[in-house]
Design a protein that fits this description.
six-stranded mixed beta sheet, Elongation Factor Tu (Ef-tu), domain 3, alpha+beta, six-stranded antiparallel β-barrel, 6 helices, single chain, elongated
Length: 384
């Protein structure tokens, strides 16, 4: 439905503008716009950043002291490499303390059991059995609570033994140390990982699209990744456009060539590009992202109202060529009756401009204009 409304709007504007400008030039429109690329034209770029696809967070036990940190921020690590070790002396003291508490709980449980035996014997000898019954029930509850505490303490002892046996913490993945938080909190006091590792070999590129370009990029679209420092080019596919989590700020997310105040006045959405190859890319590298452009368009879909036919029934369009109109033969693909569009398999690219085939104005060599003129303005010029 969105595409249907889009093409209906294009057709309405086309009919209002007609085929003329203020100087009787023929009005031409971008094939990229007519084919649904919206606010993006070939060659337009987005700022991008190479990021890791997977990030692993390593948390430390806040009750334990770190004895030695073996890595630093920005360092590359391998899977299984030692990151840090806990203070084993403290771990041993902790285990000894927990074992002592465990023995105390066992003694308490035996004491409660003996109290119950003694109270039952005294109840059998006493005429006031109710008083002893209440004491027995109270002691039984204390015994149950002590048994629960014993089970919990046994778990703590096993955990303490495991920590002592595995005092060294190793990296589960190969990657690069992104950050180390000594105090375990961020700038706002929220808990954070002690060590954050970006996985190696799983790079993707993150870009940001503005509200004005929403819908111009689609998941599954192929794009090119351009180096900012040399002629290196990578290719990939847009895997996700995260419209559910708009971003604020303008770092790395300004649409290349747009004014900053225009972009900051609207929402921005992150999108991600899965790469076919990461050779030569570095984590954190700044790049450009642009829609992939082929020599000839494959299956551009435009309104069939722009298609004309010669005396032999061969299809053509009126295309701009060096500021003049030119008849351009095209090869047609499938026709979409619901959308009112037809595929252009050969003869046009997204960078071309074409005119509505008005038989009274469109002719070979006619001047062209990319500025539309409203119908009333054309009428006034005709009256003058």
């Amino acid at each position: 439905m969105k595409k249907f409304r889009f093409f209906a709007l294009v057709l309405a504007v086309m009919l209002l503008a007609g085929c003329a400008s203020s100087e009787n030039a023929v009005y031409v429109q971008s094939v990229a716009s007519l084919s649904g690329m919206g606010g993006i034209a070939p060659g337009d770029r987005f700022a991008g950043l190479v990021v890791a696809e997977n990030v692993t967070e390593i948390f430390k036990d806040e009750d334990k002291a770190v004895h030695t940190l073996f890595v630093k921020e920005g360092e590359d690590v391998q899977a299984g490499q030692e990151l840090f070790s806990y203070d084993t002396d403290q771990l041993q003291l902790s285990l000894d303390r927990k074992n002592l508490e465990l023995e105390q709980l066992k003694a308490t449980i035996e004491n409660y059991k003996q109290q119950i035996i003694d109270l039952e014997a005294e109840r059998n000898r006493s005429s006031d059995k109710l008083e002893y019954t209440v004491q027995i029930q109270t002691t039984q509850l204390d015994l149950k609570e002590a048994e629960l505490n014993l089970a919990a303490k046994q778990t703590e002892v096993e955990q303490a033994k495991t920590l002592l046996e595995n005092a060294s913490v190793v990296s589960p993945i190969a990657g690069r140390i992104q950050s180390i938080s000594e105090n375990g909190t961020d700038n706002y006091g929220n808990p954070t990982a002690y060590i954050t590792i970006r996985q190696a070999g799983s790079y993707r590129v993150k870009g940001t699209i503005g509200e004005l370009q929403r819908g111009a990029l689609m998941e599954g679209s192929r794009v090119q990744i351009l180096s900012r420092t040399d002629d290196s080019v990578w290719t990939g596919t847009i895997s996700l456009i995260d419209y559910e989590n708009p971003q604020q700020g303008n770092q790395y997310d300004m649409y290349y060539g747009m004014e900053s105040d225009e972009m900051t006045s609207s929402s921005k959405y992150p999108f991600y590009v899965e790469l076919e190859s990461i050779d030569g890319l570095m984590l954190g590298q700044h790049v450009y992202i642009q829609p992939e452009i082929s020599g000839e368009s494959q299956g551009l879909a435009i309104s069939d109202a722009f298609i004309a036919y010669d005396d032999n029934g061969s299809p053509y369009v009126w295309k701009e060529s060096r500021g003049k109109l030119k008849m351009q033969s095209v090869a047609l693909g499938e026709y979409d009756m619901m959308m009112g569009t037809v595929q252009i398999l050969e003869g046009l690219t997204e960078s071309d401009y074409i005119a509505f085939p008005d038989p009274e104005l469109c002719r070979e060599g006619a001047p062209v204009s990319r500025e539309a003129v409203a119908e009333d303005a054309v009428a006034e010029e005709g009256a003058g």
